[in-house]
Amino acid sequence: MAENLTSASWVECRVEDDSDVLYLTGVWRLANVAAIAGRLRELGLHARTRFVLDGSKLETLDTAAGFILLRHLADVGCTQAMVSARGFDARYQRLLELVHERMTTPPSAAHSGHQGLLQRVGATVLAVVRMLKMHVDFVGVVTLELLSLVRRPGRFRTKETVSQFEAVCIDAVPIVALVNFLIGVVIAYVLGVQAQRYGATLFVADGIALGICRELSPILSSVLVAGRSGAAFTAQIGTMKVEDEIDAISTLGLSPIQVLVIPRLVALMVALPLLVFVGDAAGIAGGLLVGNWQLDIAPQVFMDRVHAALELRHFVIGIAKAPVFAVVVAIIACGMGLQVSRDARSLGQNTTSTVVQCIVWVIILDAAFAVAFQRMRI
Amino acid sequence: MERVLSVESLVTRFGAQVVHDGVSFGVERGEVLALIGGSGSGKSVLLREIIGLVRPTAGRIELLGTDVWQSEPYAMDELRGHFGVLFQDGALFSSLTVAENVAVPFVEHTDLPRDLIAPLVGFKLALVGLPPDAGAKFPAQLSGGMRKRAALARALALEPDLLFLDEPTSGLDPVGAREFYRLLRALADSLGLTVFFLTHDLDMLVAIADRVIALAAGRVIADGPVAAVRKSDDPWLQEYFASRA
Ligand SMILES: Nc1ncnc2c1ncn2[C@@H]1O[C@H](COP(=O)(O)OP(=O)(O)OP(=O)(O)O)[C@@H](O)[C@H]1O
Ligand SMILES: [Mg+2]
After folding, report:
1. Which residues 76-135 of B are in CB contact (within 8 Å) with A?
2. For A183, B45, B51, B157, which has the most beta carbons within 10 A of its beta carbon?
């Protein structure tokens, strides 16, 4: 664009008769718009006289440059009556007319608007409240659909439920086992180092059995399922929403809740206790391994200790929390999926939000359970 | 007359399927040209080959004096600033507002300051007939017709010489479609744009096309003004034009 720089003046202003004549020169194109705008400001035009635009020396003109010129004239207070054009190529004359005709609508803001801190906090609080309300509503809707299913059990989708079960349970076994096993190893190791000082290494088994079965395995398994299956639920249902498939399901006289949500809910409620059990076994195995290698506890001794320490109630509490967490994950994930609006952006946002909400709620509920069980002395 | 696009003996094959079997035509500057053909006749593929997205099996495509498939990547980048494309569904970025969508080409391809981009974006939106409040909306909040207009504003942002449109009126109601193609014609006349569009819309064809190219069985079966193509004795074309009440 070197040749454009030489015609640096862009516009020459001369007084002829009683009007200001603006001679436009050079290449009036988008690439030079910044320079043209600067030059126009430099001229310091005033709206007291008539303006004549002379296009006889113009090489080219595009809408961006034409717009900048006409907007500048409008900004300094020129009305249409005060501006006339001459010497333009017929094409550019038409272009200027089009620009003039269209530019009268005020330009819109290019940004979606930046919010102040207070505004953001307020908006976030409102969004959270709205989200909670939505989840509560959704629980109600799903309950009603479940009740209607009880009256007509034939409508239950066994096949879909089984295939969901495979996806959320069977496929998740390796990762759940691995994570719990490693946590068992880590905890046994850390506990063992402390316990060795008091010569109480055997009690590592107590710690492992209680910690893993009552708290860690339920939490870890639920968090993993939230990340794995919760995200998948939202993405699957959300994609169907984007593609209008949900509407198609309703139009075919089916209930999207019964077709999509209840199979996932049931599958997850069955799957999560099983996964927690797998986690229990894997965690204890991890502890047992560390006990054997690092702390000189024979596996048989370790297991005896586990049997003694792990009363049935601890194990049952751990397993019994799982269906509750499963309901939380399934309701949030499916609800967020159905809330997806018709664009790719909201699909991504809702999937992220599902994972975050599920994890937070699982941990909040677990804390509530811990306090409640303590009060009830179980 | 200056040739802005020429396609020479283009062949396209996907596996055993032959989509184009020697397609040749040229487009002059300022023409409004329609490409018609039945579903699956290879219109969209041809468009994607012209704009450098799909590589043809054989043949030559020259766009604004640059051989699309033989030239260096930087030449293609330079070329991209000179044509705009309106994809079938608009292909607006769903995470950006309409105004931000239109601002993308300005931000990426020019060094204009922000305080110039904002009014230019507003003007482009007005140019395609969008109301001022549309700029702050997200694509998902717009109707199909408004999305097309927004996409047109984005395609026109860098003042292209050539505009490619894939089925610009599909999904619009007849009134909206008419408004949209009249807008296109007005822009083409005032801006001296060359417009190349694919369509199934006979009304649009008759209303704004200077010239029609019909594609069937991988070949150009007709090429000329609407009135001439209409008189063609090809059975598909006769059927096509007869479908207009
Ligand atoms: N990437 C691809 N791989 C294999 N085949 C393809 C590919 N893209 C297109 N085709 C085939 O090429 C043919 C032409 O497709 P194209 O999309 O160009 O049709 P069209 O003329 O645009 O039809 P319509 O009017 O329905 O949009 C079709 O038969 C399609 O199956
Ligand atoms: Mg197509």
Report:
1. 94-95, 97, 99-100, 103, 110-114, 116-123, 125-127, 129, 131-135
2. B157
How does pLDDT run across A234-288, given as a tens digit for each residue?
A: 999 999 988 878 888 887 778 899 989 999 999 999 999 999 999 999 999 999 9
What is the span of the domain harbouring residue B104?
A: 92-159
Residue B136 lies in a domain: yes
Q: Is the pTM for the entire model greater than 0.80?
A: no
**Number of domains making up chain A:** 2
Chain B's closest residue to A98, CA to CA, is B190
Q: How remote is the CA of residue B187 from the centroid of ligand 1, in Å?
A: 30
Which atom of ligand 1 has the smallest separation from the CA of B47?
Answer: 18
Q: Do A98 and A149 sit in the same domain of this protein?
A: no
> How many CB atoms within 10 Å of residue A123?
11
> Is B138 in CB contact (< 8 Å) with chain A?
yes
In a domain, B155, yes or no: yes
Q: What is the pLDDT of residue A106?
A: 55
Ligand 1: residue of B11, B12, B14 to mutate (most ligand atoms within 8 A of CB) is: B14
Can you give the CATH number for the domain in which A8 is found?
Answer: 3.30.750.24
Of all protein residues, the one whose alpha carbon is nearest to atom 8 of ligand 1 is B45
User: Do A149 and A58 have their domain in common?
Assistant: no
Tell me, yes or no, whether A59 and A161 share the same domain.
no
Residue B41 placed within a domain: no
Same domain, yes or no: A149 and A256:
yes
For helices B98-109 and B144-156, angle between their N-to-C axes, nearest 10 degrees: 10
User: Angle at CA A355, nearest 5°, toward A353 and A359?
Assistant: 115
- DSSP result, A175-213: HHHHHHHHHHHHHHHHHHHHHHHTT-GGGHHHHHHHIII
pLDDT for A317 beyond 60: yes
Q: Which of A63, A91, A102 sits opposite B159 (nearest CB)?
A: A63
| % pLDDT > 70, chain B | 99
H/E segment holding residue A61 = strand A58-61
Min Cα separation B111/chain A (Å)? 8
Do A152 and A97 lie in a common domain? no
Query: Is A103 in a helix, a strand, or coil?
Result: helix
Task: Give the pLDDT confidence of A55-96 residue by residue, as tens digits.
Answer: 888 888 888 888 888 888 888 887 777 888 888 888 888 888
- Is A136 within a domain? no
pLDDT attached to residue A167 = 92
- For residue B41, the ligand closest to its alpha carbon is 1
Does the residue B130 lie in any domain? Answer: yes
Task: Compute the distance between CA of residue A378 and CA of residue A139 in angstroms, rounded to an integer.
Answer: 29
Residue A100 shares a structural domain with residue A204: no
Residue A134 lies in a domain: no
Count up the domains in chain B and report the number: 1
Same domain assignment for residues A203 and A92: no
User: Residue A188 phi/psi, 5° resolution?
Assistant: -60, -40
Contact A108/B99, CB-based, under 8 Å? yes
- Is 60 exceeded by the pLDDT of residue A3? no
Alpha-carbon distance of A38 to A40, in angstroms, equals 5
Chain centroid, CA B200 distance in Å = 13
In three-state secondary structure terms, A18 is coil
Q: Are residues A89 and A184 in the same domain?
A: no
Examine the pLDDT at A112 and tell me if it is beyond 80.
Answer: no
Residues of chain A with Cβ-Cβ distance to B125 below 8 Å are: 107-108
